[in-house]
Amino acid sequence: MTQKFKIAVFEGDGIGPEIMAPTVAILKKFSQLRSDYTFEFNTVPAGAAHYATTGESLPEASLQTAKDSDAILLSAMGLPSVRYEDGTEISPQIDLRKELNLYAGVRPVRISRGQRTPLKSEAEVDFILIRESTEGLFHSQGSGEVSDTVARETLQISRETSEKLFKFSFELARLRQKSGRGQGRVTCVDKANVFRAFAFFRAIFDEEAARYPELIADHAYVDATALWMVEKPESFDVLVTENMFGDILSDLGAGLMGGLGLAPSADIGDTAAVFQPCHGSAPDIAGQGIANPFAMVLSAAMMLEWLGINHNQPTMVGDGTLLRLAVEAVVARGVYTTRDLGGSANTEQACAAVLEHI
Ligand code: ATP
Ligand code: MG
């Protein structure tokens, strides 16, 4: 039986359309090679350029298409020159997280042997950072108080979201351990020593941890975590943290992987999920066809995994894994990589190399 997946596609701004088109082409190729699934892609408008011409950054119809889809692919949205009236950047991706309640921002950090990294150690790195994506310090966006003398923002941690977030983290650690990749460890990253909100966060983590006695649960302060991500990143398995801390640590993770061009992400809720690269719309290189498409392609690979494609066939690895391995092979070979990775390929050539590998 052929399963049909509806995918909403947000091409976004800047380099967005340039990295989305070849990614969709790769997914189409995959589904042509398989008889058990097929995709229906629906491209929908949203973003800064759309806001500049229409006054709407996330049209209701686009949101509805996203809600009616099995998964959402998003490249990057926002341009420094286009802002809302309060001066903040256009960020429909944040609206999507809130609208669809995508509380778990999943950011894998993987460094395989031979990959360019600023790290001195040769150790292989493979951990997952989970960033809460609907509350925390991002919660007050647009609703903070600003006067001439003081500015104040709110940090919100709720029991309901934290419980779901930690459950997701422990389940993921368990899955990784089953597949032989993880140590069955979840580390709660916080600042419980100075903020009551983080002591609350940590207490809920401990409650959830008690439900998973077979897994290791531990804690780390965010400042120490930043240090250890540089000094001993191979020691981590699953890290879970608040929104703002996760935002900062995921850029650090991208830096360790040799740059934003290889950093994928997924924002996952109970039933919906958005897959997008960690990087922004890179307006400085837009229109030149030189953007690195791999973070987008790796995000699409995470989508295949999340959709459970081929996961019920024990003799095969899933297509998500195959796609990730194809990208890793092209990066390791180093011939068809883009400028940011030290190569000279353009966006299309880099994707063609991945297709070739498949
Ligand atoms: P945002 O606020 O949306 O996170 P940002 O201000 O952090 O955006 P990016 O758009 O991520 O900025 O770009 C940061 C730098 O990284 C830029 O110099 C950009 O050209 C580069 N960059 C980002 N993505 C890519 C990519 N896919 N390929 C090559 N270079 C990239
Ligand atoms: Mg950024």
Q: Which radius of gyration do the C-alpha atoms yield?
A: 20 Å
Biggest sheet record: 10 strands, mixed
Q: Tally the helices: what do you get?
A: 11
Silhouette: globular
The SSE order reads EHEHHEHEEEEHEHEHEHEEHHH
Helix content: 25-40%
- Bin the strand percentage: 15-25%
Low-pLDDT runs: none
Bound molecules: adenosine-5'-triphosphate, magnesium ion
Structural class: alpha/beta
How do the strands line up in the largest sheet? Answer: 2-1-3-12-11-4-5-10-8-9
Could you give the count of β-strands? 12
User: What is the average per-residue confidence, as pLDDT, rounded to a whole number?
Assistant: 93
Distance between the termini: 23 Å
Keywords: Amino-acid biosynthesis, Branched-chain amino acid biosynthesis, Leucine biosynthesis, Magnesium, Metal-binding, NAD, Oxidoreductase
Cofactor: Mn(2+); Mg(2+)
Protein name: 3-isopropylmalate dehydrogenase
Catalytic activity: (2R,3S)-3-isopropylmalate + NAD(+) = 4-methyl-2-oxopentanoate + CO2 + NADH
